[in-house]
From TrEMBL:
The lineage of its organism: Bacteria, Pseudomonadati, Pseudomonadota, Betaproteobacteria, Burkholderiales. InterPro entries: Hemerythrin-like. It comes from Simplicispira metamorpha. Residues 6-139 form the Hemerythrin-like domain. CDD domains: Hr-like. GO terms for cellular component: plasma membrane. Pfam families: Hemerythrin. This is Hemerythrin-like domain-containing protein.
């Protein structure tokens, strides 16, 4: 397995953890009447706003996808779908950002925020599934060592706030908080009653 493929999978796991954490917090508000922690919700939304669309997806679009198109043209349909999702993903993220702002100002906007998060989660589960189960295996089968050298260098420069070498303090704290709140199997928090 290439370094880049490992990094992509690690970044997907980090994003999945954040999404699961956000969904858990929404369930706690919805089902248990938990008071919303807007500082935590904003930190989560900042992560999803900053990392996937601004660092992760551009590296795939600039390095991995063109190399695979060249080496295995039959991947074009799946790559087109993923690149289209990369373009549409910003709008899905913006909806989460906007509905959180609305919810913070007006508690009656909770359902709109919860729906935006659900839409965001479903969008990313499908997207990550296609990348990991279709594109990465094709890339590992068809790309040359020279292709991987360039792709690996690009992805090694990523500084995902949760998994990268240049981890930012506030995102380390966010991840720590999420892991300690969320019950197993996604976190270390107490068993959910």
């Amino acid at each position: 397995m290439s370094i880049a493929a490992t990094i992509i999978r690690d970044e997907h796991r980090a994003l999945a953890s954040v999404i699961k954490g956000l969904q858990f917090l929404i369930q706690e508000i919805q089902n248990r009447g938990q008071k919303p922690d807007f500082a935590l919700l904003q930190a989560i939304v900042s992560y999803v706003e900053q990392f996937p669309d601004k660092l992760h997806h551009p590296k795939e679009d600039q390095y991995l996808f063109p190399a695979l198109r060249l080496r295995y043209p039959a991947s074009a349909t799946d790559l087109d779908i993923l690149q289209d999702e990369h373009e549409r993903g910003a709008a899905v993220t913006t909806r989460v950002v906007e509905t959180l702002r609305e919810y913070a100002a007006d508690p009656a906007r909770f359902e709109a925020f919860a729906q935006a998060v659900d839409d965001y989660a479903n969008f990313h589960w499908s997207h990550m599934h296609r990348e990991e189960n279709v594109i990465l295996p094709l890339a590992e089968a068809h790309l040359t060592p020279q292709d991987w050298t360039q792709i690996n260098a690009a992805f090694k420069s990523n500084s995902d706030p949760l998994v990268g070498i240049n981890t930012q303090r506030e995102f380390r704290e966010l991840f720590r908080r999420l892991v300690n709140i969320i019950p197993a199997p996604y976190g270390l928090g107490a068993e959910h009653r």
